[in-house]
Amino acid sequence: MEKNLKKYFTLAVSIDCVVFGFDGKDLKVLLIKRGEVPFKNFWALPGDLMKPDEDLNVSVNHILKDLTGLSDLFFEQVETFGEIKRHPLGRVITTGYYTLIKIDDYELNPSSFASKAKWFKIKKINELAFDHDKILLSSIQKLQKSVRIRPLGFELLPQLFTLTELKLLYEAILDIKMDTRNFRKKILQMKLLKETGKLQENVSHRPAKLFQFDKKQYEILEKKGFNFDV
């Protein structure tokens, strides 16, 4: 019986991280340049083999910190990718995770086999190492579904923001153009934004009102069955 089971313990497990960021105009993703084979000098998602003595949720932050310097982020699992030949050195099953961060809040510090770490516009990304194109696409699709039913997009904005900035964010994530009047009407009817009484500063046009996401109000509405839908 033991001999028959040995073949099932000859595969490796890895984690790949999709870190989304927003610069006020474009949705971006963090990539590393691999300094080792396989796929040396290819751009890739930050990812690595799991240590045998680490849980998934611990390993995802450990791997990301080792490769990019980013730490203590909240991740959501995307799915598991297990095609037989996805890794040229042997059978490796990987679990994809994604997170959202404000780019300006973090400093990149690539290390280990990551020779570089850089933010890329989603639409400007060429072929990635391994099957990371597939993992990235699945993460984008999951993000797009999630932001339509939960207010995740606010994670990528400054604490105070304009309705135009909010609209640009959702257009970037969903890759669509939204009617300005309809978007403003719909988002304000949700009663999830607080007027701060402040206006934009140092702008060449008429300064717009600054709003703030009301997390407590959202939690109250969610308990009553409220459905966030942009």
Description:
By secondary structure, this protein is an alpha+beta fold. The protein has two domains: 2-149, Nucleoside Triphosphate Pyrophosphohydrolase (Alpha-Beta Complex); 152-223, Winged helix-like DNA-binding domain superfamily/Winged helix DNA-binding domain (Arc Repressor Mutant, subunit A), CATH 1.10.10.10. Helices cover 29% and strands 27% of the residues. The protein has six helices and nine strands; from the N terminus they run αββββαβββαααββα. It has helices spanning 2-5, 56-68, 132-149, 163-174, 180-189, 215-223; strands spanning 12-22, 27-34, 43-44, 47-49, 76-81, 92-102, 114-121, 193-199, 209-213. The strands form two sheets. Strands 1, 2, 3, 4, 5, 6 and 7 form a seven-stranded mixed beta sheet that branches. A two-stranded antiparallel sheet has the order 8-9. The longest helix is centred in the middle third of the chain and has 18 residues, at 132-149. The mean pLDDT is 92.
